[in-house]
């Protein structure tokens, strides 16, 4: 059945999700809908969506988070449709990998636009609604890369997710008086379209980074090959627990890989942690 019954289900809680065309965003939309929530599922090309249209409590909205006009329209349309949004899941994200010297500037800007400015756009647009309601929660998908250089050649992605963490931590005190909550989810690697959607700078006339590029590329391919959707389901359930108030943590780390790296990052002096990365990726000359 299509989205023709929205008015009848307006008493439920509603989540607004960015980037629901694939991966974690799509799985989250389905899980919340199956558990009785209304879902404002946003994506860049809703006309292409073939799965979410069959859930009567999911409504699609067109949204490229880098376009402020689309953000305004999608947020207003979702509020008009559902009356009230309880939780916003800032999920949309892109990867940019490669040695900095090789990365195209447009790819750096794209990563900053989606992962940092896009989240900022969505939060700014929702603040009047959340303040008016004296209630609301932003759940933000960061990464193990948001607090550690877990994978070499990820400096640009690191920069965007570190910036996201700064934005969210920085807003916490500012929004507390209005009962607006902010959370960070820090997953390790999981199966999605992420690697396919990631731009990986390599080759060209500079060969100095060939060795490390090969190592990192192999590691990415290996982890994609091993990954299954079970880990993604664990992350979705962790998000649901936060949205339903059963997890009060500011940061939620998901996955053993992320837990191990972030524990090492916490207990080791930074030089020792960075030396550990150099050793483990065998990148000494
Ligand atoms: N996969 C991992 O191993 C991993 C690990 C840690 C954290 N994360 C984070 O998890 C989140 C979800 O990623 P995923 O792994 O599920 O990857 P994914 O399958 O590639 O999903 C990313 C989503 O973001 C959307 N998106 C990209 N640019 C956008 C834009 N300008 N406006 C709106 N939506 C846009 C994509 O839509 P289109 O189809 O239109 O491109 C897609 O729906 C991201 O924030 C990512 O950084 C992923």
Notable traits:
alpha/beta; 285 residues; seven-stranded parallel sheet; disordered N terminus; 15% strand; 48% helix; two-stranded parallel ribbon
How is this fold's topology laid out?
Elements: E1 14-17, H1 23-34, E2 38-43, E3 58-62, H2 68-82, E4 87-90, E5 96-98, H3 105-133, E6 136-141, H4 155-175, E7 180-187, H5 194-197, E8 199-201, H6 210-226, H7 229-243, E9 251-254, H8 256-267, H9 270-280
Parallel strand pairs: 1-2, 1-4, 2-3, 4-6, 5-8, 6-7, 7-9
Helix pairs in contact: 1-7, 2-3, 3-4
The site of NADP nicotinamide-adenine-dinucleotide phosphate (NAP) has 29 residues, from helix 1, helix 3 and helix 5.
Q: What would a concise description of this structure say?
A:
With 285 residues, the protein is of the alpha/beta class.
Largest sheet: 7 strands, parallel
Q: Write out the strand line-up for the largest beta sheet, numbering strands in chain order.
A: 3-2-1-4-6-7-9
Fill in the CATH topology.
Rossmann fold
Give the helix level as a range of percent. 40-55%
């Amino acid at each position: 059945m299509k989205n023709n019954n929205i008015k009848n289900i307006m008493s439920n809680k509603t989540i607004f999700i960015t980037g629901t065309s694939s991966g974690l965003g799509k799985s989250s939309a389905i899980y919340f809908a199956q558990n009785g929530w209304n879902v404002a599922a946003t994506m860049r090309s809703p006309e292409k969506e073939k799965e979410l249209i069959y859930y009567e409590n999911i409504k699609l909205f067109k949204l490229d988070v880098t376009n402020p006009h689309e953000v305004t329209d999608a947020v207003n349309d979702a509020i008009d449709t559902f009356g009230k949004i309880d939780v916003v899941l800032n999920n949309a994200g892109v990867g940019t990998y490669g040695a900095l010297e090789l990365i195209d500037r447009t790819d750096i800007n794209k990563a900053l636009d989606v992962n940092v400015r896009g989240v900022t756009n969505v939060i700014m647009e929702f603040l009047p609604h959340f303040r008016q309601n004296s209630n609301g929660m932003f759940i933000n998908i960061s990464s193990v890369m948001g607090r550690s250089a877990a994978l070499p050649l990820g400096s640009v992605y690191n920069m965007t997710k570190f910036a996201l963490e700064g934005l969210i931590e920085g807003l916490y005190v500012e929004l507390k008086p209005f009962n607006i909550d902010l959370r960070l989810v820090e997953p390790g690697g999981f199966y999605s379209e992420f690697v396919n959607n990631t731009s990986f700078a390599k080759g060209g006339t500079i060969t100095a980074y060939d060795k490390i590029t090969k190592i990192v590329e192999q590691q990415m391919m290996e982890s994609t090959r091993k990954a299954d959707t079970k880990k993604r389901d664990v992350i979705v359930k962790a998000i649901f627990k936060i949205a339903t108030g059963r997890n009060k943590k500011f940061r939620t780390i998901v996955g053993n890989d992320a837990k191990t790296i972030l524990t090492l990052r916490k207990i080791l002096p930074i030089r020792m942690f960075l030396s550990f990365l150099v050793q483990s990726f065998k990148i000494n000359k």
